[in-house]
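agent> step 3/5: call structure_predict on target 'PhoD-like phosphatase' (Allorhodopirellula heiligendammensis).
agent> reason: downstream docking stage needs a structural representation; sequence fetched in step 2, passing through unchanged.
tool.input:
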Amino acid sequence: MMRTIPLAALLFCSFASVAPADAPLEGTKPAQWRVVWMDDPSTKATILWSTAKQGQYHSVQYHVKGDDQEPAEQLARTGQYTGGKTELFYHQVQLTDLEPATAYEIKLISDKNESAAFYFVTAPVLDREFSILHGGDSRSDRETRREVNAMIAKMFAESYENDDPADDILAFAHGGDYIVDGKKMDLWSAWLSDHELTTAPDGRLLPIIPARGNHDHGKPFNEVFGFPESDLNYYGINIGPEVRFVTLNSEISTAGDQANWLAQELERSRPNNRWLLVQYHRPVYPAVKGPGAGLKSWVPLFEEYNIDLACEADGHNIKRTVPIRGGKIDESGVVYIGEGGLGVPQRTPKTDRWFLESPGMADKGNHIFVLTFEKEKLDGKCVLLGGEVRDEFSRPIRATVAAP
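tool.output (status=ok):
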C-alpha cells in the first residue's frame, strides 16, 4: 500500500507559485477553489471558486500542463450564494471536451485578480488500477476537520510517490453533512475555506464527488457544488472504464423516481463494470441509529445487481458490516462501510448488532477510507486521524456480474 516518502521527493511542479490554504476572502481575489466530478470525469470537470465582492469579469484559463501554447479561457457563471448575512459570490465553469488521464493547469481570474496556478487530472479511460477516498460528516468540529483535510492532502500527495499505480488517489467521495445547517452560508464559507487544505503541496486539486446529507438542506448545496438549481443530486459516473460510482440522495424519497432510476442505472452498469459502488448519507445497516428508508427502497436492488460496496455516513462512527444478502450473513452479499468521521465528535457503535460482529467491525474515531481498485480485488482500509490504519478488508471480483 502507500509508502511514506518526504514531500521534497514530489515531482517538480511547473507552477511559478502555489497559493496557500486559507486564502483570504478580500474583494475579488479568488478563494475557496474546488473541482467537482458529477458527469464523465474523463472529459469534464466543474471548477468553482468564491469572491467577497461580485466583480464584473470571472473566467478560468486552462491548458494541458507542460504545454507552452496559449491557454484557453472560459467565462464563469456567477451568482450570489443563497443564505447568510454576509455577501459571498460563486463562480462556476464546466470544462468539457477534455482529454482523459490528462493534467490541466488552471488559473482563476476575477477582475484583475489571478489565483496561483493549480492543476487537476481527468479520469482515465484505459483500464488501470487506482484508489479513491471516501468519508462523511465534517460538520461540527472545525479544528478536527482541518486536521483531517491536512491529512487528506498528505495522503493525496504521497499516493503518487511510488511506482504502484494502484496507490494513486484520483478523487474524494464525500457522503454528506458538510456543515451543521445547510442554509447558513457563513458555515459553508468556513467549510469551503477549510477544503482548500486538501490541495496537494504542488498545487494539485483533489476532485470531490459530493452526496447530500440531512444537514445539507437548502439551496446553497447546489450552488457550492455546481449542480443545476433544481437538481435532485443522484447521479452515476465512471472513474475509469471498469469502476462505476453511483451517488444517491437519502434526503428525498428513496422510492418512486429515484428507485426507478437506480434500477435502470444498476441494470445497465453491472454488466459493463468490474466494480460497482454506491454512496449515500443515511445508513441502511447502521451502527448507532435506526435504518434509513433505503433499506426497503434500495437494498433489494443492491442485492439483485450485486453491487460490490455501499459507502455510508451519518452515524459518526466507524463500521464495516459482514456481507449481507436477504437480511443475513452471506459471502455473496453486500458489504456496507461508514459512517462518517471527517470532523465530528464520534459516537459509540452498538457492536452487538449481528451485522457488525466478526468478521465485521465497529469502532469510533475520526477517519477516512481508502478504496483501491485492482484487477481481481477491491481493497479497503480505514485510516484514523494521525495515520493509524484501524481496519483493512478485501472484496474479490464477483465470478459473474450479469443482470437478471
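agent> step 4/5: record observation. The first helix runs from residue 142 to 158.
agent> proceeding.
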